[in-house]
Amino acid sequence: MQTARPIVVYGATGHTGRFVLRELLRRGLPAVAVGRRLASDGLPPVAQRQAALDDPEALQRALAGCAAVINCAGPFLDTARPLVEAALRAGCHYLDVTAEQLSAQAVLDEFDAPARAAGIAVVPAAGFYGGLADLLASALLAGDGAAADLRVGVALSHWWPTTGTRVTGVRNQAPRLVMEGGRLVPLAQPAQTATWPFDEPFGAQPMVELPFSEVVTMARHLPLRSLHSFIGARALQDIRDPATPAPTAVDEQGRSAQRFAMEVIADGPRPRRAWATGQDIYAVSAPMVVEAALRLGSAGAGHRGALVLGQLGDARGFLGALAPRHLAFGID
Q1: Confidence (pTM)
Q2: Which of the four, 98, 104, 252, 273, has the lowest number of CB atoms within 10 Å?
Q3: Is 51 domain-assigned?
Q4: How many CB atoms lie within 10 A of CB 194?
Q5: Is position 324 within any domain?
């Protein structure tokens, strides 16, 4: 980022927030940890500011002089609006890592014009859910103006949920959306099931249709006729079981042992595929959202308004910036 101004991480003491702070420091970027309550135990050595979401003056002070704020505090249905409004007042970019369709859609629809007027960008869903599928689809469809029929498949070896994920699941009861006939429509019930032939080590996986924020981000800018998203049945069993434990670190980066695979398939006479594999969906969200913040702040970028990851320049180049340290990817 062509600036010495720091990047704020809101929700810095949470599971994903700590990954984001470490990634900022690894890349030599100044960071500020902000939250409603802050406990320094386990936090990297960064500046700290305290601000509650219902205190606009404290939020504005916390964001003063910063280049961007990265919101890692869910449920984003509750946290996105006050932080976007604070970013508008402070004149800094806003990014988050929401998987919540309704939150992403509200930010994109309601804050495009105010962000343009303020000369900033607001970028929701810049993490694993929302952002990664959007990048894969954008790379897959680059230069192809024809409307596409896309399917997204996500396989997880396990889904060990954080406290934030569980709280968000209770809070987010909005009907889920898919795309049909070029329009966003409610997910049909009962949800579709399928078997998805992932590469090894996952192999053929039983899947359930369950769309996340990628439907909203991809519908924002890609020429699509239809879009349906599926997730592995095992991951759903994990997330729905109250006895499933939280993620536990197994390496020096703090990642869990969870493995993931994501595929975006463009159906047609000659199906095409973009794929990504890696470790820990929470951990991989950190380099994604930090890379997005860097692209917003790079000299001459000129990004303004409500945007998604696939609109921040070359999607294949964005994915290349994450590989091989954070993920592997390919386009068939």
Answers
A1: 0.96
A2: 252
A3: yes
A4: 13
A5: no
